[in-house]
Every structure is written in C-alpha cells, then in structure tokens.
Amino acid sequence: MGTRIRIGRRINISPLWVAIAIIVLIAAPALYLAAKTWQTSRAIYHEIPTQAQGALTPAPTGRIPIVIITPQATATRGVASQLTPYDPSKWVPSPTAEATPVVQSNIKEWNGKKRINFLLLGVDRRGNEIPRSDTIILASLDFEHNRAYVLSIPRDLYVNVPGFNYWKINAAYALGENPKYKDQVGGGIGLLIMTLRQNFGIDIDEYATIDFEGFIKGIDAIGGVDIRVPKKIVDNQYPSESGGYERVVFNAGLQHMDGEMALKYARTRHADSDFGRMRRQQQIILAVQQKAKNPSILLKAPTLLNIIKGHVETSLSPSEQLKLGRWAASLPKKNIEFYSIEGPIGMTPDGQSVVYADWNAINPILKKVFGPQAGHP
C-alpha cells in the first residue's frame, strides 16, 4: 500500500487575497497574492508507490555512499547556528508608523492539528524542459504558541530519494516531474514529500510552488521590498536569460529591490556560497512579510488582478490562504525563527559536488523546528 499524498491543482492568482502572507513568509514572496478562483476540485489523491518502476535500485544497506570531503569545507562540518537561529530582521526595515498591521488572526488549530508543516518551492521552468526545484524551504507553523519556524535546505544536500538511490535533494522534484515516473510518484511534489519524510522524518501538511516569473511579478505587484544588504556582492557568473553569464552587483546598505533585482539577490551565490544564498532568501521572505502589514497593498487590488496567474500551485483553497495569510502577516518579527542546514562540500565518486548530510548535527535542529518525532532514522 502506498502513502497517500494530497496534490493540489494549479490555481489562478488575484491580489484580492494579498493577505496570504503565510505562503510568502515561508518561501516565495510573490505568493502574497493568493487565489482568485479554485479550478475544478481542491485536491486529488495519488497512491504513491514505495519505489518507482524502472527507477534506480535504492542502496541496499540504507547507508550513504562514499563522499570525499574537500579540505576547505572540513572546518564547517555540521549545521550552522546550531544553538542560535539566523536572524535576518536586522537587515529588514520595520514598517513605518503609518502602516497599520493587518487584522489579527487567532488560529487555534489546522485540520485538527495545533502545528503543521508547510513546504515551499521556488521552481525553475524553462520552455519544454523538465522543471527543477531551485529553492526548498520548510516551515513549521505553531498555532498554539503563535510562532513560525523557517528552515532552508541546500539544493545540493545529498540524500536518498526513494526508489532512485542517492541524489542531490533538488533532483527529487525533477525526477518526479519526468513523464516516465510522474504518474507513479505523484509528480515532483509527491516525490519530494516522500524524500523529506524518509530523510527528515517530517510529514508535509500543505505546500505551494512558484516559478521565477511569478516571483518577479509578485514582488513588483507589491511595490518591491527594502533590504539592508550586509556587504557588497559581486557575482561575475550569474546565469543570464541568453544561457550565458552576466555580472551582478549589490552594494552594501539599504536597497529597494524590484522583482528582477530581488530574484537576482535571492539566487546569486558565486560571491560567497549556496549557504549565503539561503540567508538572502530568508531576508526577502521577512521583507515581504513586513510589507504585508501595510494596508495600502490592498488598495492595489484592481491593478494587480491576475498579475501572476498561472505561476503558482498550492494545496490550499482560497479561504485557507486568506486564513493563513492573516495569521502570518500579524506575526511579530520576534515570533519568526530562521534556520538553515549547512555542512561540508563533498565530492561523489561520479564527480558531483554535494553538501554532505551530517545527521548527528542536523537532527537536533530538525527536532527543535519540527518536534521530537523529526530526524533522520
């Protein structure tokens, strides 16, 4: 018997649901603009097999294959900020005094749960190519204590993808979207959810995805975001639309970013690392959450209508998005904790550069963020 995974339909987007800050809060800021209509049924159920037919055979021992740790990475082994979560709030200006907070929302539980896990994906879609997950963020939403815990996962984290042996974690979504396996594993979302359950001991209750174009349009629609860039960034190898590279520069200090600039800030990594990239994404998440506190965003609804239609997929209905959005937008900064998984860079036998999963260091963070049942078995 397979595991039952709820897979949501693609939805149309309307700024009238701008209060959907919760989706933005835990991954992609453009998702502040929530659903206009709910096409067909809210969700369908797929039977997920334990192993995709025709896929690679899982490692029989369940142990991770040999990974050679590179010298420059050995000193950083484990999870960064193991005891102290990353705090992006000092890089995000607070709303002005004129910005009245949104209506308070007091959610006691969600479908019988006082705490739920939310998966957010930034997806790279290019023409007829199989889409890939570029950003993976998990959030634990604690309604009992009115808190949110946000965990960024490096896309190169080396994990066991059920039915496919060991891959970088961002490959799970692409493998699931491959027409050869899609119906068997519930698509990219289905396979990634199984991968998270197997490696992290976490069940996902809800999810949302957004592509790059939707991210850009969403940020532009809310008037951009303000971020204090901690230090100057120069990336001479940022991937351009033409398939080559372009130079991207961010000066230190307060910067107002439109959608395109915010996307580059969220994706650039050659100036430091993928770990620095995750911290920048968390800064943007908090910046949008703070922006949503300004009621003037709601006044832009007529202009924003349908602006990011077709770029978002989620398991939430419109009423659920509004409910969660109000709750998230009302959270004070101090009630949102950010974490990221970091570790040494390793080299697999076939020459892939990966992030080694030191579960002895990662598990304490998983248990803190998602509860005592979480953790790699």
What structural category arises from helix and sheet content?
Answer: alpha+beta
Question: Number of helical runs?
Answer: 11
The multimeric state of the shown protein is single chain
Shape: globular
CATH fourth-tier homologous superfamily: LCP protein
Task: Determine the fraction of residues in helical runs and give it as a percent range.
Answer: 25-40%
User: Low-confidence parts, pLDDT < 50 over ≥5 residues?
Assistant: 1-65, 67-84, 97-103
> What distance lies between the first and last C-alpha atoms, to the nearest angstrom?
21 Å
User: What is the residue-averaged pLDDT?
Assistant: 72
Rounded radius of gyration (Å):
20 Å
CATH class: Alpha Beta
Structural domains: how many:
1
Q: Biggest β-sheet, characterized? A: 6 strands, mixed
Approximate strand percentage: 15-25%
